[in-house]
Task: structure prediction
Amino acid sequence: MNYELFLAKRIIAGKKYKNSISSPIIKIAITAIALGIVIMLIAVATASGLQSKIRDKMAGFKGHVQIVNYDNNNSDVSISPISKEQDFYPEIPTIEGIKNIQVFASKGGLIRTDTSFEGIVFKGVSSDYDWTFFKEYLIAGKLPDFNQKRTRDVLLSQTIIDRLQLKLNDTITATFLKSSKSKLPSNKKYIITGIYNSGFAQFDKNIMIGDIREVQQLNKWTDNQVGGFEVLLDSFDDIQQKTEEIYKEVSLTLNAKSIVDTYPAVFDWIKLFDNNVWFIIGIMILIAGINMITALLVLILERVQMIGILKALGSNNGSIRKVFLYNATYLILKGLFWGNLIGLFLIGIQHYFKLITLNPETYYVTTMPVQISLWAVFLLNIGTLVLCVLMLIIPSYIITKINPSKSIKFA
Result:
């Protein structure tokens, strides 16, 4: 029989325990544990959600990996064409984890109205394009259909629509400069068939999605010439490894570059979220541990006579310490239970109702995204429990200083 656990249960169940002087201190300790796990869960969920959402949005606009010419891989505009006839297109059988490979070509231009104009990058795509990303953020209209012989349908962002005071199904005039300075610009008319709003202001402010054949015609390219290839991966976690593998599969004149390398400032910024999360976790566990140490010491001092009697009956210091550590572990578990309940409830509220909004100019999203895995919840709880219990081991040594003859003198 584990009599230490038995005694701990009797202490917890006793009415004297619930009405003792230590009761308020115990409640404060439980509250500290609960608040700590709530804050840690929210910190992990928001950091993970922001990182995941920003990565997904960038991949939606640019793909995880772009295969382009060396001479224009740092530009949003396609300068020199690439033949579509490549060994790696439309798939690379030697590399696993590739979701899709799609062609694209981009050209800079202006959208003009009677009262204003706006600079845009016309991104031409083909029938092989994966529309999953834009389906999620399509707020009006429909996606362009590239399966017909020719289409002038385009997809514009809500940002451009608002700035130019346009609406769905409007016909717009776009002007594109030609490569030769002596030639006049080309004017093209397009129909706004869809409006999207990704909340990623850096791209929403200038990206127009349309038919790649329009860009090919403007650049006087053949149907077999494109600006580059976008590779979508099954998992972002493998992006560096897959980029290296893809690079080995392309010709010497082409470069394979991941969005992490193309936009290092953005990814360095979102990496800082991890540092913030670890700092918050450390502070919360420290605060919870200090409160539990206080509660344990009060419990011990309140039961000095019981400790003396147990020692007089033959219990050693280790066994008595176990009684109080079991007691403290129960309090920690109680705090974790309520903390998880409240924390996951708040995360669920934000996930479904989007109550907290953000400035897309700063955070690239309009609402605070939250994402947390059961594995992360498990590790947070186990980590908090283990660390708090370890912090209680040293203070529990005060039991060894209690003298039985003195502690039971006035019992």
